[in-house]
Amino acid sequence: MSEHPSKDIIGTKGAELKGKRIVLCITGSVAAAESPEIARTLMRHGAEVFAVMSTMAQKIIHPYLMEWATGNDVITDLTGKIEHVALAGMHPQKADLILVAPATANTISKVACGIDDTTVTSVVSTAFGSNIPIIIVPAMHESMYNHPILKENISKLKALGVGFVGPRIEEGKAKIAKTEEIVDDVIRKLESKRDFSDLRILITAGPTVEHIDPIRVITNRSSGKMGVALAEEALSRGAEVTLVYGLGAAIPPAGVNVVPVETTTEMYDAVVSELKSKKYDVVIAAAAAADWMVEKPFPYKVSTHKLDKLELRLKPTQKIIDEVKKVSPATFLVAFRAEHKLSKDKLIENAYGRLLDAKADLIVVNDVAQKDAGFGTETNEVFIVDKKKKVVHVPLTSKREAARKILDAVKGRIKQK
User: What 8-state DSSP symbol labels residue 10?
Assistant: First the structure.
C-alpha cells in the first residue's frame, strides 16, 4: 500500500523540520479542535507527526480525524505493543520532540507529579527518561490557569527544561496559543543552527530592591520574564549565558549560570566583577534596577504606631549600563529602557539619547503603560534602536519571540563590527 495521501503536504511550506519525528499529545480540552491544524502545519514544515490521544480527548474529536491529519495510526490505548516506548523510548527511532497541545490543568499537574495514568502522561514520562525535548501548550479557563498549585507545577516543569507556549488570556479563558506561535517554537527548539555557540553573554534581569528598613523596600513591578526569555533564547542558540538576577518571579532555565542579587549596588558589583574576570562578547541589560535608594536606611523596623508621616531622602543608584563600556569597551552592549505613555517618536528619541549616553550598541525600549506589554505580562511590544538610529519594531508577541528578534538584531550587528 502506498503512503497515506494526507502526507502529500509534508514539506510544502519549508524544510525546517525535515526528518523530524514529532509526537502530538492531545488531552481533553475543547482546544483539541485545533490539534489537526497544528499537526498539518508541522507537516507542511517537513515533520512526520504521530498523534497520541487521551480518553477525554477522544470525546472532543474522533481519532479518525487525527489519523487523516497525520497520515499515521493514532495511539488511543497502551497495549502489548508498548506504544509509549515505541514512540519515546531510548532507541534510534525515538521521537525528536513531544508536543502536548492542548494540555489541560489535569495533565500538566500529573506530568509535574510523575503520574502516568493516560496514554499522554505515559508518553511524556517516557520522554523525560529518554531526554526528549518536551513542549506543553496549556488551554483551560483562566480561573483554572490561575490556581496556585498549577502555577507551582508549571514552574517545576520549566525548571526541568520543559518549554511552554502561551496561553492567550482572552474572554476569561487561557486559550491555546496560535498555531503559528506553537510551530515557531517547535522549529526553534529543533533547529540545528546554533548561531551563538561561540559567544559568551551576560544578561541582567528582574527587579532590584532598596531598603527603607530591614523589612520594607523600594522596588518596581518587574517580573524578570523578559530577561529570562532572553536567557532561554541565547541558551537554545548555543551561547554560554550568565544571568545576574534580581528578585524576579520568572524561573531561569537550567544550564544558565545564575548570579543572584538583591539591591542595585549588588547587581552593579556583580556585573563589574563578571566583566573584569571573564571576556563577555555581549551584555544585555534587561534588568529593571531600582533608580533610587534611601540615603540613610533605618537599621531597625520603623514602627507606624503614632507616626503621622515618614520622610525619606532618596539618592540615585549607580547606573549599571554606564559602567559596561568603561570596564569592557569591546563588549557589545544592549541597553533596555521602559517608558510610560509616550508617543512612538518620543519613545524612540528618548531611547536613542540614552543609547548615546551609555555608548551602547543597541537599545530596546517599550511603553509599560501599553496593555499586555508592561511588567509581569507574558507578551511584549518593543522597538530596537541602533547607533545609526535604525529602528526595528517588534509588534506585540510572546516575550520569547521578542527575545528571538532582539538576539537576531544582535547577531546581525556583531557580524558588521
Answer: T
Do 38 and 176 contact (CB within 8 A), yes or no?
Answer: no
Question: Pseudo-torsion of CA 237, 239, 242, 246, nearest 10°?
Answer: -20
The runs of H, that is alpha helices, within 197-343 are 225-236, 264-277, 320-327
How far apart are alpha carbons 187 and 272 in whole angstroms? Answer: 36
What would you report as the CA-atom Rg of the chain, rounded to the nearest whole angstrom?
24
Q: Does the predicted model carry a pTM greater than 0.70?
A: no
Cα–Cα distance for residue pair 256/258, rounded to 1 Å: 6
* Residues 49-75 pLDDT 10s: 999 999 999 999 999 999 999 999 999
Report whether 367 contacts 197 (CB < 8 A): no
According to DSSP, residue 330 is labeled: T
Residues 37-55 pLDDT 10s: 999 999 998 999 999 999 9
Task: Identify the structural domains of the chain with CATH numbers, from first to last.
Answer: 8-190 (3.40.50.1950), 200-416 (3.40.50.10300)
Strands (E), 60-216: 97-103, 134-138, 140-141, 163-164, 168-170, 173-175, 200-205, 210-211
